Amino acid sequence: MKQHIGSCLCGTVKFEVKGEFDSFYLCHCQHCQKDTGSAHAANLFSQSAQLKWLVGQDAISTFTLPGTRHSKSFCNLCGSALPNTEIEGLLVVPAGCLDSKVPLEPTAHIFTSSKPCWDIDQTKLPSFEKLPR
Predict the structure, then answer these.
(1) Nearest CA among 97, 72, 98 for reference residue 85
(2) Level-2 CATH architecture, domain 3-116
C-alpha cells in the first residue's frame, strides 16, 4: 500500500495518506482561484485512501462555502491548505502540501470556462531558477 507524507508550511500539522490517488485535477473554478490566490488549485482525489493526522490536528480549521460543496481545510497558524474530507466519500489533498513525491501527473484541467484572462501558455514566458534581480 502506498504511503504519502505531508505537512503545512510552518510544520505544525503533519499527516500521512495510505492508499492510491484516483485523479489529480487542476481546478480553475472561481472558488479555487479565491482560496489559492492563483489561477487554479492542484488537488489529488481518492475514494479509498485513508488520511491520518500525525500532529497538529487541533491547529486545523475547515471552511465550507455556504450553498456549495466547496470546502477547504487549512492550518490556523500559517494558512497552508491541507487535506479535506468534507465531501462525503472523497479525500481531497492539495498537491503542494505533500512532502513525498506526488505520485501522478495532472489528469485534467477542470472548470476551464472560469480561467482568468492572465492564465496564459506559460511555456512562452521567461524562466528563472530564483527570484530575478
Answers:
(1) 72
(2) Beta Complex (2.170)
